[in-house]
Each structure stands twice: as C-alpha cells, then as structure tokens.
Amino acid sequence: MEEIRRVRPSKYSGLDKGAISMGLAESDFDMPKEVKEAMINAILEGRYHYEMGGVPEFLEAAVEKLRRFNGIDATEEEVLPTVGAMNGIWLSYKVLLKPGDHVVVVTPTYPPLVERPKSFQAEVTEVRAGEDWHLDIEAIERALTDRTRVITICNPNNPTGAVYTRDELEQLAELAVRRNLYVISDELYEHLTYDGRRHVSIASLPGMRERTITIFGFTKSARQGF
Questions:
Q1: Which of 79, 129, 163, 217 qualifies as a cystine partner to 197, CB 3.0-4.6 A?
Q2: pTM summary value
C-alpha cells in the first residue's frame, strides 16, 4: 500500500494511511505482462487501423466466453465492441429510446445509467432497491407506465455490491416478457462475487436473449473468464 500511495498520489490524496481508495474505477496494480506483450505485438504487426466490426479473434473469444461463463448463446454479429462501457451504455439508450419514452432504473446505481436516457428526452423513474439491496419487483412493476420501454439494472450492483439471485432475475424477466420491455443489464462486475454467490446474466433466462442488452467490460477484475 505504501508503494501504491507513492505512485498514485492523486488517487490517495487526503485519505488515511490505511484507507483503500475506491473513488476511481481503475486498477492500482501494474498491467499484466501478457497484455503489454500483446499490445506491443499488435503494433509491430501493423494492427492499429480501424476494424469497425471488431477484431475477429476478439469476437470469437467473446462469443465463447458468453456461452461458457454467462450462459448466453450469442453470435459474433450480436457482439458490439465499444469504446468502454460508458459508450456501450450511451449507445444502448440511443438505439432503444425516442423522446417521450420512459425508463425505470433500479437504484442506487452507476450514475450514467440514470442520466444518459435524459439526453434523449426520455423520462426516468428511479426505483430504490429493497432493504437488502435486492430487487423490489413489486415496486418496479408499480413504476411502469404505458410509455415504459426499458428497465435498467446493474448486477453485481455498483455501489452496493448486491449480486441478484436467479429467482429475483426470473421474476424480473417474467415482468419484462409480460410487458414487452427491454432490459439493459450493466454486468461490469460479473467476476467480483464472494461467499459462494454466483453471478447470473438475465439474458441467459428464457425469453430474455432477444430483449436484453448486456454491458460487459475488461477493466474491473483480473479474472475475465477466458
């Protein structure tokens, strides 16, 4: 920790000596040697041009990861590489929403999930999670209107750390199917589960593959499931 505080003074400025900063969503540790070598080799091989559809090897690996870890039977055409999760969130709302649409967002959550719909003139209703930070399905359903188009969740949740159970996600899936709604599921922290909890992707549940946009990323944990 002393070394981290020395090389990351801006991140740890003003914190007590024993504190761990969680204010910036980035690693305190050096990039793995294998990643550095892969980046260097890509440059040496001339792979620094725009590949708008995504690098073929990445798409193939992503599809395999989704099948094996998330239980999502996706095709390469259904995987869209974006400029980080923030860009993925923005694009998801841009594609799904038009002015006057309504979005239900389960909170507390990552702020852009609440704020981005507003940039497309959509109305946002925040539905607070239950006392245990898990989904309050009844409250979500009460918040729906005839203009609701999207329900947005963050699982595992940022900032509470709650990992939604299969049972509650099945209830949410039933609601989404019954009301013909889309679900945006931010699953950036999918590998950060503890005490025997298991991450479940809502897109893997019956009826949800075609109505879910799932946001993944590669910056929040060292273990990516490949």
A1: 163
A2: 0.86
